[in-house]
Amino acid sequence: MPMKLRLYITTCxxxxxxxxxxxxxxxxxxxxxxxxxxxxxxxxxxxxLFSAEMYEVATHQQSVVMHFLExxxxxxxxxDQGMIQTRLSDDKVFFRQGSIRDLSAVxxxxxxxxxxxxxxxxxxxxxxxxxFVSIVFPAQYDLLFGMNQEQAQRSxxxxxLAAPHSPLVRQGGxxxxxxxxxxxxxxxxxxxxxxxxxxxxxxxxxxxxxxxxKEGTDYxxxxxxxxxxxxAANLFHALIPDRDYRMHVEQSVYGMQxxxxxxxxSQWLNYCAYWNMEVFFAVEEEREDGMLCLIIARNSExxxxxxxxxxxxxxxxxxxxxxxxxxxxxxxxxxxxxxIYQQSTTNRKKKRW
Length: 353
Hints:
Elements: H1 3-19, H2 52-57, H3 60-76, H4 81-91, E1 94-97, E2 112-117, E3 120-127, E4 130-138, H5 141-145, H6 149-161, E5 179-180, E6 194-196, E7 200-201, E8 203-207, E9 211-215, E10 218-221, H7 228-236, E11 246-253, E12 257-264, H8 265-274, E13 278-287, E14 290-299, E15 304-312, E16 323-332, H9 337-350
Parallel strand pairs: 11-16
Antiparallel strand pairs: 1-4, 2-3, 3-4, 5-6, 6-9, 7-8, 9-10, 11-12, 13-14, 14-15, 15-16
């Protein structure tokens, strides 16, 4: 593989990581069909914007975007000029540099950059070290996956169950993270426990903090019966080997329906890792059957959230085969999380589960 190509792909990865302020393989299904005259028609026998070598070195996030661009503009080949412009406008896809006609001149080995800023992707192909074609489009899962909310919700079960049942434990890196000391600075009275600096999500108590003891120069994740809430937070952040915990899931789907299934907690954790999801955790209520926990799994790269209400039994520390109960409301836009949470809280108070 040419070194120049690898260099540009590496630059692309770095751009994504630095520019993002802020797992289901991309599936087919695009809107519209058939038109007689298309500016994308040519002799290539299909639109290939990225080479196999580019896919090999791309991250999962980048490969989803790359698949989307090829699938999306391939579908436009079958539409006339008027339908193309309407489709681009409806989907909020626009060309910052060049035009749709220039895509036919893009080679699948042409170097490109990809960035994610303010919930929008920009992909630019380079010619003579300058942008030749630049496309901007929303970082929205329905657009990028080629499926609506109902289709995405119904596919979630299979996506989670396809994840491996194998331990996922995040290790290392504590020396590079800022930790709050045990003195309780910033209002955190954690006694002898350190925590990462928390990011708050919508609700004051809902954050992404994880918790540690310090032994010498090492930080050991908290997991003991004296600190059940900290231990549960660490568990859902994949800091603890889950042994063989299982979750009985009731998942809401479009049309006021639910589907039920059983999975291993490790499958959920691996699914979240595959989709690069940030986990936010809070304990809502202490119950006779355990802690009722609120969990938000946020995907900033494709702008969706999964909301979970999970009952974690108090015996989960000592019982490696404990069964957790979860209700999942999937694929919630960020701006709607608070409303969905309030609705689920109201319904739960009416009917205990």
